[in-house]
Amino acid sequence: MMRKRVLFGVSITAAVLAAAGWVAVLGAQAASPAPTAGRAAGQGGQGARGGAPQAPAAPAGGGPGANLGPDDKPAVDPAAADRGRTVWASECINCHGSQARGTDTAPNLVRSVLVLHDRAGNELGPFLQKGHRLQSGRPGSSLTTEQIQDVAQFLRQRVNDGLRSSPTFRAQNVLVGDVKAGETFFNGAGNCKSCHSPTGDMAGAGARYDAVTLQQRFLFPNVGGRGGARFGGAGGAVSPTAVTVKVTPATGPALSGVMVQMDDFTVTLREASGTVRTFRRGPTVKVEKTVPLAAHYALLDTITDAQIHDVVAYLETLK
Amino acid sequence: MKRLGLIVAVLAVASALSAQAPTGVDPSALGRPATTSWPTYNGDYSGRRFSTLTQINTNTVKGLSLAWSYRASAGGAIKGTPLQVDGVMYLTNPDHAWAIDARTGRELWHFAWTSKGGIHIGNRGGAIVGDAFYFETPDCHLIALNIKDGTERWHKEICDLDQFYYGSVAPVIVKNHLITGVSGDDLDVPGYLDARDPATGELQWRWYAVPLKMGDPGSETWPNEDAMKHGGGMTWQPITYDPELNLIYVTTGNPQPVIAHANRKGDNLFTGSIVALNADTGKMAWYFQSSPHDTHDWDSTQTAVVFDGVFNGQPRKLIAQAARNGHFFVLDRTNGKALISTEYVKTNWAMGYDEKSGQPIPNPAKMPQIAGALVSPNQGGATNWPPPSFSPATGLFYVSASRAFSVYYVYDPSDNPQGWGGTDRGSYTESMIQAIDYKTGKLRWTHRWEGNPRSGLLSTAGNLLFAGGPSSDIVALNATTGDAIWHAGLNASVSNGPITYELDGLQYLVVSASDTLWAFVLNK
């Protein structure tokens, strides 16, 4: 059976909906609404290094839907969802829970296939009209079309809460460590003070960065990955954390610079002057690599989660 | 269901084909390595991605020259493995399929599907049965085309887009069953594997990766029915198959919710597992859970590679997997009993192995935490979808491996999280090829990369291993020693698993880098 479908964002008046008995408006695909939010990479996302997730190119011949993809899901109108929340609180919340994730007495609606199929109330409406009892004791059919559409918006918002694009998708409190222990680690076992100083480069770190950012930056100072500090970036000023190489050819003087690229066959460096040089590698070509952030990387093998939290707590005090 | 807006673009027809008419693929031939074709995702059913061809070898590989390149006009990076049958190459991208002359790189036809949506992250390839070509689309369709001209025979909806499923896996033909899997882990939905009639697309059997009711096998590893019915376990990598045992080996994805896991206490069978299914009934013969109660998005969908070998002096039917979680397993493929469990890169999340099953025991402290837990590998894994290779000539299992760290956070600390409820952030990664001796699980050699390439692999009887290198290059390594012998720069990093075949007595090597296929040949 063909599923009835109405994409939200297509203007559908209550009168039309009522007259049509919730029959969907077909052919609405072309009126794709603004994306709910670009979803993060799906399966293999992190591993799909061959390329970032991308919008599909237009198929040959173009046509409607060419730019669908992650955007095929209904958008949420926050105002409508807020109105829906009010209906929810008065008629649904006792049984289905504040987040629509169900209780002992009623099912999880975020996982409901009917809710997932619903577009602007086109499945929810007929379901409620069958007499589903509301918490006020009234039948579901007593809800107005607008109320049902609003509840549908509220539910779609709850579905989206579970997605990586959700506004609620963010780190909670990571400030759980011991400041004193963090300071001790900084000055002792962590060997941080060999390069850093709480009154020098780290002064004000706690004011500059939130706790999660501090945690990330001290564990992964190379963030940016490929093409980042580890590889000397793409150009411009030489970062003090960039990997450098010194190449001594069989004949001629040794040359040093930021490592641009290295594989089993060639090594490329950028000299301080900006000149880029590539050398063919071989038994008579000596290559020495220097990794300024090596101490950070080594830390990953030894640091405990408790130490991480302590260090973050300490760094956060450096206002 | 009538579909609106379907268009078929046939840009060129079979007139450009070489002299012989396409005869297609006989599934009964897929049990042994082909030489003049690459007829299924892994080349044959074993998943070894090993070729018996020897023209290109450690001595001759430096003589490889470019035969042609072909740029896919749509769909982005080519992450699928093309097929080559009767001198024609069949290539896929999300919503697109092409036939290309395997000798010249000339496009013969192009089929474009108008999408209703779904995640367009990649397509792993297609299958050929007889004179039909099959592939999945992001909007949950299985499509059958005529290999002759790319015209559509039929399409069938195989999953529900509204539940955030999508299609990406390469179907595999086993006897008269077209085996198709599903993708999608944004919402909490169950994974499944289908067998479909190649003639019509009708469902023959479906195996769910999770139990659907209490009392079913595996239900004891879930807290309640709601949790397991929404427990994930996507089947997004192509299966392997043992024709003699008539067992399909399907590998399953991570449980759901992915990161926050308060509502799915237990091992969460049969997610994160290698599962053996009867090819004709879909009935489970055995399972091995390589990632019990995963909380790190480490699907265990990596290829379960089938080979025969000698273990402790006894000939054995084996199956091996280098899992995304960093652990390597060799099992008896008749019963799923673990013979070897070991790490192929150092990890920090397991407390050891269960003595009886050989499965890793997760360390609760290294599950995602509100304040963060430093975990290795990271979410991308110690390896991922790019296929590994096993060479019976060297006895080595090769895998593109990463030693990576990140911090895993719980974002939704409630007792009933949905979807993801957390993620990892930050990353430090070292990448390498690991060559693992299947008899001991020990590393024979490691080839470190100076960057983070991660490609599929191909090994050959020419004592070569082909891999993507760190400089947007394709690299030939000595399969015995790991020494790099030859490379060629491409325009982008290798994005699939290389394949090889012989045509007109010449051996080809074909590999994709982003949107372009590169074909090399050893001319005589």
Could you explain how this protein is built, in words?
The complex is a heterodimer of chains A (319) and B (524). Chain A is α+β, with helices and mostly antiparallel strands and 319 residues long. In chain A, 30% of the residues lie in helices and 9% in strands. Chain A contains eleven helices and five strands. In chain A, strands 4-3-2-1-5 form a five-stranded antiparallel sheet, with no helix packed on it. In chain A, strand 2 (255-262) and strand 3 (266-270) form a beta hairpin. In chain A, helix 2 packs across helix 6 (145-161) and helix 9 (211-219) packs across helix 11 (305-316). The longest helix of chain A has 17 residues, at 145-161. By secondary structure, chain B is mainly β. Chain B is built from one helix and 36 strands. In chain B, strand 26 (389-391) and strand 27 (396-410) form a beta hairpin. The longest helix of chain B is centred in the middle third of the chain and has 5 residues, at 225-229. The termini of chain B are far apart. Chains A and B meet through helix 4, helix 9, helix 10 and helix 11 of A and strand 27 and strand 28 of B.
Task: Provide a short characterization of the protein structure.
With 319 residues, chain A is of the alpha+beta class. Helix content of chain A is 30%, strand content 9%.
Biggest sheet of chain A, in brief?
Answer: 5 strands, antiparallel
Q: Which word captures the global form of chain B?
A: globular
The structure class of chain B reads mainly beta
Number of helices of chain A: 11
Instruction: Please mark out the parts of chain B with pLDDT under 50 across 5 or more consecutive residues, or reply none.
Output: 1-21
> What integer is the average pLDDT of chain B?
94
Distance between the termini of chain A: 63 Å
Cα shape of chain A: elongated
Helix content of chain B: under 10%
| Low-pLDDT runs of chain A | 1-71, 224-235
Element-level helix/strand string of chain A: HHHHHHHHHEEEEEHH
Please state the oligomeric state of the protein chains shown.
Answer: heterodimer
Largest interface: A-B, 84 and 109 residues
Portion of residues in beta strands of chain B equals 35-45%
- Neighbour order of strands in the largest sheet of chain A: 4-3-2-1-5
* Tally of helical runs of chain B: 1
Measure the end-to-end span of chain B: 54 Å
Judged by helices, strands and strand pairing, the structural class of chain A is alpha+beta
The profile of the biggest β sheet of chain B is: 5 strands, mixed
Tell me the radius of gyration of chain A.
29 Å
- Proportion of residues in extended strands of chain A: 5-15%
